[in-house]
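Hey team,

Filing this mostly as a record. A colleague (T.K.) asked me to run one chain through the structure pipeline before their review meeting, and I want the input and output archived in the tracker in case anyone asks later how it was produced. No errors, nothing strange. Just documentation.

Input sequence:
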Amino acid sequence: MSPHTTQQHAEPPTQREHAETAPSHHPAQPSPTEPGDVPAPPPLLAGEDDIRPCPGDVPTGAWTRSTRTVARELGLRRHEFEAAVDLGALPTLPSGGLPWRRRVPRAALDRLRGDRRTRAGLRDRVHLVNATDGAALLGISTARFTRLARGGCFSPVGFHLNRYQALVWRYSAGELRDFAGYCPHLLRGRAPDGLRRALAAGADWRPRKWRGRRTALLARQATGPWEKAAVPAAVLEPPTLREVVPDPDERARLRLLRPPLLPADPGGTRTDRIREVLRATDPDEVRWYRSLLRRYLTEARAARPAPGRDPAPCGTAR
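Output structure:
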């Protein structure tokens, strides 16, 4: 459980598709029961933007250039463009062809190109900060900011490895300002007992929060049930995946449809550090993704079984 949450939800939250991808005990959805606990914040991902068309309403010919070209036209750096998509500030739709390839609807691009104030607002929404700048934004010390981040009080949007091969987390400046508004008591004075105990025990919710955010986005972007099932499969260790999906043909399909957990190269050469972020290892989190994978596999099998032998039930050895 999150260190500032004292009870678990019986079921995952039901808000949009995030309900299917964020663990019910995920710190983004706390259930405070004590005065010092963190109240439930707004959704991690922004709601539908008014420039976001429904996929069924947009013909293929109305789609625009690739995401890389759009980022260049809007004057966004790579990580800013990725943040715009992750935060729901810029819509994308499937482009067809290879799985997980996305394009930006022309209507969205035309609106942004034609309105300088809208472009400036977009850049403001996707502004990301590291721990030092985030602490300055909240008016607290970097040490306190890091403790709050480790305790799961807010979620990283991305990360990279610096020249010293250390993991550097990036946060949405807008989300941090919102956090300061609904949790001012965590910025001053003594931290809640549960948070202090968890931190003393070495808790670090940053990788888990990032995985929850990233898998939520990917599950919404999936264009078919097997792609959707490949999302939770991507964060499970191979032995765990074999337990949940004993059929080798199904595992092969999931590997083929594996989503891009990292939207871009985080830099550096410490693959072990990156792997720690990409894979779920906490037993509670692993149970959630196992359950999610079983549910998605049931839907995928009903739609179209994997080629080869008839699939075995989830979690059943041949």
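Quick notes for T.K.: Residues 62 and 106 are 6 Å apart (CA to CA). The chain is about 45% helix and 5% strand.
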